[in-house]
Amino acid sequence: MTVLFSSTVKSTFRDYIQGTWGTFSTPAGRVEYIMTKARLGEESPAPERLLTQHLSPVREVMDADVLDFNQLLQRDLDDHRVATGLIPYLLKNRATGPAFFPPIMAVLLPFKEGSPSRFPAFGDAEIVEDQDLPWKQVQAGDAFAVRRVVDAQGEYHPVNLAQLRWNEHASRLVVLDGQHRAMALLAIDRTMSHKWRGSRGEKFRDFYEKQVQRYLADEAIASNMDLSNVEVPVTVCWFPDRVGETGHAHEAARTLFVDVNKEAKAPSESRIILLSDAELVNVLTRSMLSDLRRPDNDDLMPLYAVEYDNPDINTTRPARWSVMTNIHLLKEAVNRCVFGPPKYLRDVTKKISSREGKPERDAFMRQQLEVGKLFKAEVQDEGFTYRRDAIGNESFPLGKADILSTRFSETWGSSILTLLSKVEPYAAHARALRRMEAGWSGVEIYASLARDALFGGVGVYWTLKDSYEHYKEESRNKPGASRRKPDDDVLRAWEVIEEKESAFEVFRAEEYLGSAAEDKREASKSAYLVLNTHACQLGLAMTLGSLWELRKSEVKRWKLDELPAFAGALAQGWNAFFLHDAGRGKARDRRLAFSKTVSDPINQIPKLETARAVYFRYFWLQALASPESWNLVAEWFDGREGFEKMLSDARSMYLGFCIEERKKALKTSKPRQTDDQRRNEAEELATKTLRKALVNWFFVTEAEFNGWLSPDTLASATQDAAEGVDENDDSVDDDEAEDNDSRPLSYEELLDDE
């Protein structure tokens, strides 16, 4: 766009853009915008040239170490996609015509010392004369100003020419949509102008610099390249009603992001949880991640033990070897413990199904968070009135969500994190991770990238993985001298990550089993293939929920504020079970009690799907029933009768599951059997297996088991089996599978040009 004027007025704002003004309404409220463009080329004071340098991905605006998860605005940047797809698209000459990008959308947001803040309120409108043009201008303190050309009568001119001026110390242009296109422009500009060093994006330099330099050094490309012709349309937005003390521009931007992307390629489930305010369960889940980010959370697992950036749309278990759990499990824990519905916590024989009523779930949430004590009968928020007794997952006052999330964090959030941080298998995993981080060596670029992928940068792990797989495939398709030499720092970084997996398994075996001997490493690895599944961890959370419901039914003067202490007592009880006789002679090592590879295992679940959490709840209850464990939690209950009833019901349901699994196996191995023969043999085999597991691993005597296994108990278990294993048995298989034919190429093989 041609510069139509040069200002003769002393301006508070150094940075500005100009273009055509417009406005529209969204779920985020009223939005005003200017249509303009950003371009490459030689250094110039022209606003469209400077705009390229002002477009900022959110990762370069906010400090990732202090970023609250409620402040996330966009999906992770896929640096691999930008480097191998978008940059070549911009720089390569194409017979089909010039490169073209759809408009980038950026939003002006307030920041103070790198943290989200609020804009000052607008002052009165005033007429400003500049270069013989009259403008009507409104200014928000020292943050930004908007001016539009007016006619002789002081009315806005029909050409709608406008300027947005801002102070970068108080305001930043954050890319809301099209961040990959914006990053392609930034990467080219920073490489050509040697501005990577010292920039907020310097840590990502190695994904781009050599790639751009390679194209610029290609004579065939460079001879036909005129970067001044590389222009990209940009829509710069702001929220005129989100200024002043009550303005929440960052919340509006997050809402606008979801709105403009709802028809685009579906973001991953992780992104939806991190971004969307449409459901209260997402807000509460994010609050746990923010609690882990606090600098005073040394008694909880580190944030890097949680996988929250997986780009896959459907994720049912952690994919990275370093993490212990993921954001989907945290959401499931919130879902079951806070929203229920209550039948899943109060009746341990209920199997998880898809038939859940929203009113029942919302009512249970209001009980679990004691919403009646948090709000008056009616709540006013953003011009809407909410009835307290109608607040639910999809209908809640967003402006008051911090009240709900704070109450959740103080009670259920703290309790769930306590279990995942202090129960010994998970505490040991976290200790091993902290050891690895503390002992990390190497200052090379590739070592720094690998460290960031495991302990810091959002999305870096997946970018390195994609880059490595891309070059591996390229090396196979282009053998010999025709193979393009890859970016070695990126490849070495991924190889460091793969090498560190073995080192981590040593640390974890030492922390959990007290030894790094080969048999201990294998035993530890097998145990964690179970312990780190959704089924096992959700079963743990549901055990907390069920036992809390039991306490509420037995104790008249219970208080929700006691829940974290209750969770702490449960953690101590389970640790007493896991650490009983640990490492002493030939005693059973109960740290392996949930493993499927030990002798006489209690775990007979072939597919560790999320819905099978109800059976793991039985395992956790059974572990808590051991004498030493019960002594640590007994004071929270009115005797042991209620607990024994819950344990018996859960055991009966699990026995029914095992009977059904045996029947399935017999139908294949002994097809000539009658249904009665198959049922009788299945009952005998399943009962024998469960008896041996309880006697050998869970301190249950033969006499106790036989006393429990009455004809009525067996009939109840058989009836459960006859009714089917799961009402919603369509989950993705969580079992790990290894492909022996997919051996990764080494760094030397990838670099080999012969």
Task: Summarize the structure in words.
With 754 residues, the chain is α+β, with helices and mostly antiparallel strands. The protein is 47% helix and 11% strand. It contains 27 helices and 14 strands. The strands form 3 sheets. Strands 1, 2, 3, 4, 5, 6, 7, 8, 9 and 10 form a 10-stranded mixed sheet that branches. The protein has a two-stranded parallel sheet with strand order 11-12. A hairpin with a 2-residue loop joins strand 1 and strand 2. The longest helix has 29 residues, at 641-669. The two termini are 50 Å apart. Mean pLDDT is 84; it is low at 1-10 and 724-754.
Labels describing this entry:
754 residues; alpha+beta; two-stranded parallel ribbon; 14 strands; 47% helix; globular
Task: Give a short summary of the structure.
This protein is an alpha+beta fold and 754 residues long. Helices cover 47% and strands 11% of the residues.
Layout of strands and helices, then pairs:
Elements: E1 15-26, E2 29-39, H1 47-54, H2 58-61, H3 79-91, E3 104-112, E4 115-116, E5 126-130, E6 133-140, E7 144-149, E8 161-166, E9 171-177, H4 179-192, H5 209-217, H6 219-222, E10 231-238, H7 249-260, H8 269-275, H9 280-293, E11 306-307, E12 325-326, H10 327-339, H11 343-346, H12 358-368, E13 378-381, E14 384-387, H13 401-422, H14 424-438, H15 445-455, H16 460-477, H17 488-513, H18 518-531, H19 534-554, H20 563-578, H21 613-624, H22 627-633, H23 641-669, H24 675-697, H25 702-708, H26 711-722, H27 747-751
Parallel strand pairs: 3-10, 11-12
Antiparallel strand pairs: 1-2, 1-8, 2-10, 3-4, 3-9, 5-6, 6-7, 7-8, 13-14
